């Protein structure tokens, strides 16, 4: 440690040499290692490697390696249709699990579908249609065994809001529906396209924190919207922000509320909440909340039919078109200005749907410890929405609540989705007339009960405890949704996510390092208060790649550390700083602007008579510094393997701990 | 190193403890250090610190600290008008330098101004106007002593292109001019606004590499445009892409070229290039290229006047309005749709102008070793453009070529700009009629000569040598400009710059570490081929903050390393991996998604019977892992100060070097 510069001498070799031994410590190990200088990769090789890591980091073609042609085709087919893979191992024990799970999620989805279709300003049957075709396609192409496919609350609301901005569903229901199918078609195209071109990582840019906030905001918004049905209010705002919704509610307090509706609605809601509570308290009774919705529908429908409460102002579903999905291929706007509008809406809603589905898929895959290929999932989800848009479905995706029930009731494969789909078909063909007397209030209660599950209090508390910035992102998205609109909330969520990334690369942290007494280790003096600075030497660590976006800041910041330190030393009449060592371990990469900044730093320090050294530059950094002749410029003897070596070479000696 | 787990024992303390001593090495130093766990900062404090580092990292209020109120006002005035500061120390010797520099750049700028105004589709006098008012304002408010203010080629071209997309300058010259002033006004507002709100860092997002490509592309485009004047072509395309320009040139080859014009143009260009060559060869003759343009103007004007070549088809300037800038405050579109258009154009052109000016200011500040406050500069540049827009000027900024001449001819302060400005006024008031017979061909030659200097071959070669990605960004911007348009080139430049940042945060590098034989140091096995892996232990380093955008990738990548390593070990019949150590030194931060990914990683490893340990997590990372209870989960004894400690605790023993 306390070796003087003359001890070391100026290295004569043209190589970058670092001595890791230290005499004073009587270290018996003596070894000389050079800072590794990798051979420069060719442009082509480098480009290929970048492309591979960016798009194919999960090595999807691994199983295809060294297989015969026929086998490759078979493997390819199985990759596109995983059902061919798991179908071969399917047996009765699995079917039993899938049957129970499928029946349960069917009983959950039927009332939800009818309610969610309303969120999208569509007639009830479109919700049921969307629970028929897409789950079948997914069962053939998807890789997740637990996800339950169908319409979901948040996407329905988002789609409804975006579509209403373009066409009034009350005045032009046909055009509105056509635009909905167009948007669904493009949502599928976008989803499948992202997967095919292995661009799935774009959805990673919506941070978890922002999603938590967005989901909670959407849940509150949806729940508030349901007050219309729950309280039997006639005139209700079309807007979704909390202020106007509450005005609608209070405005209707004297003449708009219908006590029969309220009675039905609130008692159903109470029943559902109690059922949920029972299920939570006793895990073995998980089936209670799962069948409660269908039970309330049956009971309340029967009640209304008996009492003819609909004559006393209780709004009822009235009519659901009977029969399975009609074709809608001719309804999609293939040309014209609505094509573009449809694409935009499909893009936004499709991405949100994708984010939700992939998040669900990953969660359950992690629980059961299998790997889910995000890009392959996207192709499956996209295809299912493309085919859905041709068969009168709107955007389907994975539902959080139904997937959880699917998992808990013991589903084993995607067959549970097929079962659910078949039950829905049966409903469409046979039972729909029975829904005539179902009061809207019970649907409202079911939706409120379902979306409350989207508010993840625990996650918010964790965000608050763990990461301030994430918490702010979450709150931004939440308040954006409830006070302005779903789109604005989504925009805020995306903007905050990006701002965080940009902030990281624009204003990276820097830290002064000190020696941990009795060791060769140098650590941040703020994190390790016992670390002691080396007199005459300033060791500073840069915590980021040095890129164009932060190169000037990094340079300025190091110079400011120097000024601050010099001032402190002057006050205490201590020897001034003659050496600056930049610890480069966290500097994972550098670009030409970064090298330029280092050159400026070197010049500034030179004018002040201070020497500059770099410790432990990484592979790419050394290669680039070398290519830019910067190493030759500051001297190859100024590049060290560790901070310790650099300090030793400068003759620095940490103040012994007292 | 070869210490077994039982040696260490399970730490009983609830603190995170790491042992840095190692018996076998007979290290005499024994010290126990804990991984520092910082006290968590309050939301307010953390927010304040982030704001400070983001917006006020250069501590602009430092000189105001502890001053009296009167002194503070004075300091504030001096901060806004630096002329009050340096003006007090002004003396004759400085004036001599400024006078010579000012006269030289005036002689350069007058012919350039007339030509550049044409690039912006404005009459020649507007170029001269722009060299009068803005330099005066800048002299009072700017901090750079070397920058030469006025119209510049690239911004003129960009402004001209953007404005022409809205209004045809030939058909509606008045409206076109009004929109130009409106755009200039908003460019100034944007510039000053960014500076006032200390958002100057936004211009850092345009990478140096992209600017080099954009500038070179713009230079080629501008030079090609000048073929119209140089070859005396009558009908010429309004587009700027190389293909249509060359079509115009070849299309006119039989009937459109005028040999008299070509003779004048090419001989002037040859003269200018020779002068430039002389100046480069002999640094003491730097004034030769500086006065050459004015000389060619005078000689060629005289020649045309004598020979009346204009009657033989040589296009001449003909008329420049005499007198100083008229007011244009009433010409700006304060309301209406053109206000918004003007804002958009001003935003784009203003940002490009700002980037250029700040880059120039920084370059020369670094040469003379003084600090330039980017935000203050922006306020000065913005104010100068706002006032310029009210006095018939279009967007002014710093000119690369003229600033270099200003510096070389020995300017000392911004007084050289004042001198230049006064010479321009004199020109406007007295000399403009003399420009009547100046041939357009000589202006074209002067512009070509000037913009060739914007092509920085050396920088491009350096980019190619040093950084592949930067080189691609540069080429993307270059080809975007020359084959499509200036806007598209600019868009490509910005997009590539952002893509680079996003790629960095989405696909960070990871590396396997090995022990450098005979030391305690662990380094990347690819960079240091001599590094040996520890049997049974996989040490992997993650080279980035773990954020939502890369958390899934990082987890997957570590698991893939594991699979790859296991396969290799199995092939060679070596002991399999039981311990995974993640070196966290470069992991400068983590967010909730990142912690989630670590939890998933931990679960996956647990299922495989593999233990997980973290080495040297940083300050923020430890705090967050602690807050999220992750440390409690994997065990506090699994957090180590160094990789060496972790390896020792797992009983690992690096294979001795052969």
From TrEMBL, chains A, B:
UniProt key word Transferase: no
Membrane-crossing segments per the record: 99-117, 137-159, 179-199, 205-224, 259-278, 285-306, 345-366, 378-397, 417-435, 442-464, 476-499
Disordered: annotated segments: 1-28
Domain annotation STAS: ranges: 527-650
SUPFAM superfamilies tied to this protein: SpoIIaa-like
GO cellular component, one term: membrane
Membrane topology: Multi-pass membrane protein
Subcellular location: Membrane
Domain of life: Eukaryota
Residue stretches in coiled coil: none
CDD domains hit by this protein: STAS_SulP_like_sulfate_transporter (cd07042)
Keyword presence, Transmembrane: yes
InterPro entries: SLC26A/SulP_dom, SLC26A/SulP_fam, STAS_dom, STAS_dom_sf
Listed GO biological process terms: transmembrane transport
Keywords: Membrane, Transmembrane, Transmembrane helix, Transport
Alphabetical list of NCBIfam families matching this protein: sulP
Record-given protein name: STAS domain-containing protein
Species annotation: Spirodela intermedia (Intermediate duckweed)
